[in-house]
Prior knowledge:
Helix content is 58%, strand content 9%. It is mainly alpha-helical. Strand 1 and strand 2 form a beta hairpin. Helix 2 (16-29) packs antiparallel against helix 4 (61-85). The longest helix has 25 residues, at 61-85.
Amino acid sequence: MQTIPKWWIWYYWICQFSWNIYGLFVSQYGDVTDPMEVLGKEKKPLNKFVEDYFGYKHDFLGAVAGALVGFSVSFAFIFVLCIKVLNFRRR
């Protein structure tokens, strides 16, 4: 089920918040196999529902962790670089 328009996919992949949500859902519900009732119709395991409905795969958790660390390191590097280069104080 694709709910994001195709021209917004790039924003989804560069948005740190979407990686956080992906990581939270997958780490909390990706390995839960308790059955749940889906819309009153059928029972399916919770991890299967998360994978089918949202498209979140538990195997992708390592890449999510790497992306979040990468975002943090890149933002810190950009901050340090800007503090060093953009010196607005004149002597």
